[in-house]
Amino acid sequence: MQAKMQLRSQRAATVGRSRVQTKVVCRAFNSMESAHAEELKKTAAYIAQKGKGILASDESNATTGKRLESVGVENTEDNRRAWRELLYTAPGLGQYVSGAIMFEETLYQTARDGRQFVDILLSQGIYPGIKVDTGLQILPGDKGETTTQGLDNLADRCKAYRKQGARFAKWRAVVKIGEAGCPSTTAVLENAHGLARYAQICQENGLVPIVEPEVTLGPGDYSIEETAFWSERVYSHVMRLLNEYGVVLEGILLKPNMCLPGLDAPVATPKEVARATVRTMMRSIPPAVPGIHFLSGGMSEEEATLNLQALNEEAPNAPWALTFSYGRALQSSTLKTWRGQEANWAAAQDILVKLAKANSEASVGNFKGPHPVPGGGRILQALRTGGAGK
Ligand code: 13P
To answer: How far, in Å, is the centroid of ligand 1 from the Cα of 126?
Structure first.
């Protein structure tokens, strides 16, 4: 009798457990069928369409200010607005660019003629996006490793940004390599967690998350193989957590670094960069992700194009778009041409569109040169910590 009762209570416990497990599985499954899932997939596929990339123009007011001041333009709200108006109204930009990432201030700004920036972008066929992280903070320790902030109130902010016209978002996590002890397990896990939780919140609120794990190009003579090793490890952790958090992979875009050797090592050829980068992506990024949009990360404008071209020659049948989400590699010469002068407006727009066209061609393996900005050095910037983004 006692044995029978024991058996019954064991069975009840097992049934109870399996019900709980079934519930968990269903919840994960249901989240893939969430209200926004179909729209997110379409938006991500649109942005990752063949021959197009993203214009990253989401620098914080502080970083934009430094860039403007480097060409003698004062860091005022109206000058930041004018600079972004120059970018977004460039004639023909939409032939080569399918998304533009904006800073919060810019998302709500208007052009001189009163049109909202989001409407100008949409009229060019460019989806407006928004940087939603609030910048880097130093992690404990003496290595200068960072975590990214911005999860607080993120759901509410996403709702407001979507209402204003944003269709996708960006969150940049930076992982430092090239120094003994870097990256620490804490940095890898913490940044993977931040990206996954951010992506989950964005999808819940109707924004396609650009997931940006940047294994940053920094000082040191570390090899391209070392960058590839850590990049593979970091991306694999990120993908694992995206899965854990029920993120729909068809409804995200990835924005990683290309694999490059450290700044004090000899520069790698485009072929070497392409081999190491494609191998890393093949090992760690599922084909369900529609687009891999590389950041320029300090490469010169020409280097960014040539490396992208080599990537597409290396993997012409890659399961994802191998394309660009460049900030500095699209903006640097554009800004130097403008210098805040009305008379240079059209010439600056022309150089932006030429750079976008070159990268668009490279994204389908069709860039034959010459490059609009040949030569040119690396476009490096210090890591900004303490808030407000890059
Ligand atoms: P860069 O292309 O200048 O690296 O910027 C891309 C970006 O958005 C980094 O967060």
So the answer is: 18
* Inter-residue contact 364 to 312 (CB < 8 Å): yes
DSSP per-residue string spanning 208-258: EEEEEEEE---SS---HHHHHHHHHHHHHHHHHHHHHTT--GGG-EE----
Element (H, E) at 27: helix 2-32
| pLDDT range class, residue 83, cuts 50, 70, 90 | very high
Instruction: Evaluate whether 80 touches 117 at the Cβ level (below 8 Å).
Output: no
357 given a catalytic annotation:
no
Q: Is the whole-model pTM more than 0.90?
A: yes
| Active-site hit among 52, 170, 255, 390 | 255
Section 247-263 average pLDDT: 98
What's the rounded mean pLDDT across residues 148-155?
Answer: 98
**What H or E segment, with its residue span, contains residue 291?**
strand 291-294
Is there a contact between 244 and 287 (Cβ–Cβ < 8 Å)? no
d(CA 365, CA 282): 18
CATH number for the segment(s) 35-363: 3.20.20.70
Q: Is 174 exposed, middle or buried (0-12, 13-18, 19+ CB in 10 A)?
A: buried
Given the residues 212, 214, 303, 314, select the one marked as catalytic.
212
Q: Please provide the average confidence, as pLDDT, over all residues in the chain.
A: 93
Q: Give φ, ψ of 322 to 5 degrees.
A: -110, 95
Beta carbon of 296 within 6 Å of any ligand 1 atom:
yes
Q: What residues does each domain of the chain span?
A: 35-363
Catalytic residue status for 336: no
pLDDT value of position 14: 46
**Could you tell me the pLDDT band of residue 382, with boundaries at 50, 70 and 90?**
confident
**Ligand 1 proximity of 326 Cβ (cutoff 6 Å):** yes
Confidence label for 322 from pLDDT (cuts 50, 70 and 90):
very high
Which of ligand 1's atoms lies nearest the C-alpha of 172? 10
Q: How confident is the model at residue 389 (pLDDT cuts 50, 70, 90)?
A: low
Residue 340 has pLDDT above 90, yes or no: yes
Distance CA(150)–CA(30), nearest Å, equals: 26
Rounded distance between C-alpha atoms, residue 243 and residue 247, angstroms: 6
Both tokens of residue 333? Answer: 């010469």
